[in-house]
Amino acid sequence: MELENGKLVIISGPSGSGKSTVVRGLLETCDLPLVVSVSATTREPREGERDGFDYHFLSKESFAERFAAGDFLESKEVFGRGHWYGTLRDEVQAGLSNGKWVVLEIDVGGALAVLEEVPDCITIFVYTSSLDELEQRLRNRKTDSEASIQRRLEVAQHELDQRHKYKHAILNQRVDDTIQEVCNTLAQYGENT
Question: What is the percent of the chain where pLDDT is above 70?
Fold first, then answer.
């Protein structure tokens, strides 16, 4: 993958760490040419979600065809629900070719897969102060069953064990401070070009 004038940014963190909120905040406040790569998924749209904006909603057959054609930079079945998610290579390349800083909000497995192909991308891991805090955040969302929460906590422990593989690990205690810290971290890369 050619970075050309753009930069590839990976932001990961356990479910409930606040990474999605941080990414939204970055897009609103950070003075860099950031764009988020829209992931593809085989799951059905939730109420209010729009194709091409929230996700690229693909049938399982279409996803499998695109996977076989090598169209994904990374892809994975998530949480054993039979739904696949992936990052479309052409969407990322289009942003990079236009000088954008393309942000991938992906899990650790996806990040490691992308790093194999693009080792010089900027990697940031967002985490909470403890698994207890993470569990409380997941419970406060009131969107997951008990079994789902327990599975997410198991995955979170594995992801936390992998955070040393990222160039930057940022503790999310106050979301506004975290957004600013991530923006400042990214801005350092702009100074080096």
Answer: 95
